[in-house]
Amino acid sequence: MMNAPQKKIYFVSDIHLGNRYMPNTTEAEKKLVRWMDRIKNDAAAIYFLGDVFDYWYEYKYVVPRGHVRFLGKLAELSDLGIEIHLLTGNHDIWMFDYLPAETGAVIHRKPFTVELFGKKFFLGHGDEVGYRPRSYRIIQRIFRNRICQFLYVTIHPRWTFGFARRWSLNSRKNGLAAKEQLERRQASSAKHLEAFAESYLQTHPDIDFFMFGHLHVLLDKKLSPAEARLLITGDWMQHFSYAEWDGDKLELKTFL
User: pLDDT per residue over 133-166, tens digit each?
Assistant: First the structure.
């Protein structure tokens, strides 16, 4: 008799489904679905660490068009008993009840700690901790404010969706145009996440792993003086990367 496969936990971030700056977003979505198909036989849970969508807003009767391959696969894996966890990112803050109701996903709006196969993980998107410019904090407060959300929802989706996607496209283009500046900003942000993790360990020495997305870089670094590690999981736009935890090894991998 063949042994059942060992169960694993998977982490992936910054997929940005529906973005307008990749040459073929449909192919990227199909590749994501192929990855989900590959891992479904041994996955105990999948943690999506934010920015699954490039833009997401749920009206009472309207959600963004598209993403049907991914959403269908999400529901399929949930029906198989695989835990689906979605952390909100800075691009998809406005997840409400649609995804939990339709796919069984659990939504997390803040960083949190969870024990997985005997080890403690601190999970977040990455923009909630460490250094954040004042302008960014103000924008985040506006986006999360219930009154602002109520006013926003009164605008027709034709205008809100178009505005959000143009903003995202221009932001990404500006970042890519200034590549050296972008790389310096990413390195600086990674240093701030490292400083946060080391500071957090002073009062929470039981944390084994800190896991973030947001920066679109791959990082696996041991934290000093503890034995904990900080990982940043890359993205599904240029790296097509993810993290895999089997209770013994935690590794960053790339899906080819």
Answer: 666 566 677 666 777 777 777 777 777 767 666 6
Burial of 24: CB neighbours in 10 Å, binned 0-12, 13-18, 19+: exposed
Neighbours of 92 (CB within 10 A): 25
- Are 50 and 87 a contacting pair, CB within 8 Å? yes
Residue in the block written with tokens 């198909």: 37
Question: Is 177 in a helix, a strand, or coil?
Answer: helix
Structure tokens at 7: 């169960």
pLDDT value, residue 23: 79
Q: Identify which of 79, 67, 83, 65 has the alpha carbon closest to the alpha carbon of residue 7.
A: 83
Q: How far apart are CA 161 and CA 173, in angstroms?
A: 18
Report d(CA 99, CA 58) in Å as an integer. Answer: 10
Nearest to 90 by CA among 71, 65, 116, 109: 109
Q: Hey, which of 93-97, 151-155, 235-239 has the most confident mean pLDDT?
A: 235-239
Regarding beta strands 119-123 and 209-212, do their DSSP bridges make them parallel or antiparallel, or are they unpaired?
parallel
Q: What are the percentages of helix, strand and coil residues in the chain, rounded to 5?
A: 40, 20, 40
Distance, in Å, from the CA atom of 77 to the CA atom of 129, rounded to the nearest integer, reads 31
Per-residue pLDDT band at 20 (split at 50, 70, 90): confident
pTM: 0.87
Alpha carbons 49 and 99: distance in angstroms, whole number:
15
Q: Which residue has the tokens 């849970």?
A: 45
Q: Record the tokens describing residue 161, joined without a space.
A: 């969706």
The encoded tokens of residue 104 equal 């069984």
Task: Kindly write down the DSSP assignment for every residue of 20-60, as one continuous string.
Answer: SSSS-HHHHHHHHHHHHHHHTTTEEEEEE-S-SBSS-B--S
